[in-house]
């Protein structure tokens, strides 16, 4: 965003008096599985106790949004619905009891909340939250079981992943809103809502990747490339990218991937090729594809005795892990990761400052930018494999 425009917007936003009032704004509404999103005038109610209403400035689309839009999991369907969970914006107003944020603060929404009080939030070993953890079945607010979105005639519009960022204004539980440095660039900070935090955090927090380590990443979408960026920043000596789309390789080089494997070009299993390249296997592998066969290859690509596989891909299949219990006696380990192990409200602000200091190159992840009303074009770019993140300007 242009600096002059940014300051002008801040000034006009601060002077606007919408606190306690219903706001009518534009939102991209999903009316059914696979149907084009419809730009609608929706009503956004004021925040209730421990809720925050946010003016969204930037949002983008990830494969989780794509899956929900397609309605791939029938149990998770709820329509009409406002999707979106990767964004940045400015606090418009806060509900009763919210003390860590105020109007005008720069924030990012997070689907993995942090209440700070439950047994999980009080345990440093996990970033789960019993009350505000990610739940794709949840479609209403915790306070009253109702929505804060409605159509012009008063019918409810459902929420998505604690966030619903495909709207000019949204209401979130305060546990799912993270205040960041006022000087942080909101364009790139939007990436911290999901993809970049998920990938980099998997390398830093979950794997605790050490300098000189060898790494294999299966699936080079935004999350996989964020893993690579995190591994590069931690000083990995070899970062192998695995993907069936050779177009991903150029972008991979920009974020630190040193070698590439296209499984279609091999006459042997991928794990055998990686073993030959790394004296028996990598120290860490990351599965970012959501495919059980890929998960097994990732597991077998790690070195016996100490190899660690981190599972990041979303697996819609009801099939169980493709591992025999006895294989774990060889010393290989496997662990899942949600939101990169970050506790949103307490750890993400520091991560944002690290990004501001140039520790990571976030600009590489934004491949396209479009106005909000062209959101369906942005979806198509992702479907066609042409974009990592298409940043939508609201």
TrEMBL record:
One of its GO terms (molecular function) is zinc ion binding. Its EC number is 1.1.1.1. Its cofactor is Zn(2+). The keyword Signal does not apply. Coiled coil: none annotated. It catalyses: a secondary alcohol + NAD(+) = a ketone + NADH + H(+); a primary alcohol + NAD(+) = an aldehyde + NADH + H(+). Residues 222-345 form the Alcohol dehydrogenase-like C-terminal domain. Residues 50-180 form the Alcohol dehydrogenase-like N-terminal domain. Keywords: Metal-binding, NAD, Oxidoreductase, Zinc. Belongs to the zinc-containing alcohol dehydrogenase family. Class-III subfamily. Homodimer. This is alcohol dehydrogenase. It comes from Theobroma cacao. The gene is LOC18605954.
């Amino acid at each position: 965003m242009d600096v002059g425009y940014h300051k002008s917007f801040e000034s006009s936003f601060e002077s606007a008096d919408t606190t306690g009032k219903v706001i009518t704004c534009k939102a991209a509404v999903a009316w059914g599985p696979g149907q084009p999103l419809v730009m609608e005038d929706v009503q956004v109610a004021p925040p209730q106790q421990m809720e925050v209403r946010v003016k969204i400035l930037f949002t983008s689309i990830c494969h989780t949004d794509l899956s929900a839009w397609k309605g791939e999991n029938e149990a998770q369907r709820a329509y009409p619905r406002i999707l979106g969970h990767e964004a940045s914006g400015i606090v418009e107003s806060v509900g009763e009891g919210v003390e860590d944020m105020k109007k005008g603060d720069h924030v990012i929404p997070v689907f993995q909340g942090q209440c700070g009080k439950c047994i999980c939030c009080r345990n440093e070993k996990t970033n789960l939250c019993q009350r505000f953890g990610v739940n794709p079945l949840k479609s209403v607010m915790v306070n009253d079981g109702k929505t804060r979105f409605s159509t012009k005639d008063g019918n409810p519009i459902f929420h998505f992943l604690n966030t619903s960022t495909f709207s000019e204004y949204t209401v979130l539980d305060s546990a799912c809103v993270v205040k960041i440095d006022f000087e942080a660039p909101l364009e790139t900070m939007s990436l911290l809502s999901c993809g970049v935090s998920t990938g980099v955090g998997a390398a830093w927090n979950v794997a605790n990747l050490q300098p000189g380590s060898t790494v294999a990443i299966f699936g080079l979408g935004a999350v996989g490339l964020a893993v690579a960026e995190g591994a590069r920043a931690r000083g990995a000596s070899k970062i192998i990218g695995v993907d069936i789309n050779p177009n991903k390789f150029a972008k991979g080089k920009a974020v630190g991937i040193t070698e590439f494997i296209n499984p279609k070009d091999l006459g042997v299993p991928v794990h055998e090729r990686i073993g030959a390249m790394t004296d028996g296997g990598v120290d860490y592998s990351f599965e970012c594809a959501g495919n059980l066969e890929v998960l097994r290859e990732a597991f077998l690509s790690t070195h016996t005795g100490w190899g660690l596989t981190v599972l990041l891909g979303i697996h819609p299949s009801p099939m169980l892990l493709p591992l025999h219990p006895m294989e774990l006696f060889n010393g290989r380990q496997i662990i899942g990761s949600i939101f990169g192990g970050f506790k949103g409200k307490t750890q993400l602000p520091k991560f944002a400052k690290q990004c501001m200091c140039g520790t990571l190159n976030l600009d590489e992840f934004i491949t396209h930018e479009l106005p909000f009303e062209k959101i369906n074009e942005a979806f198509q770019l992702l479907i066609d494999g042409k974009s990592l993140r298409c940043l939508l300007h609201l």
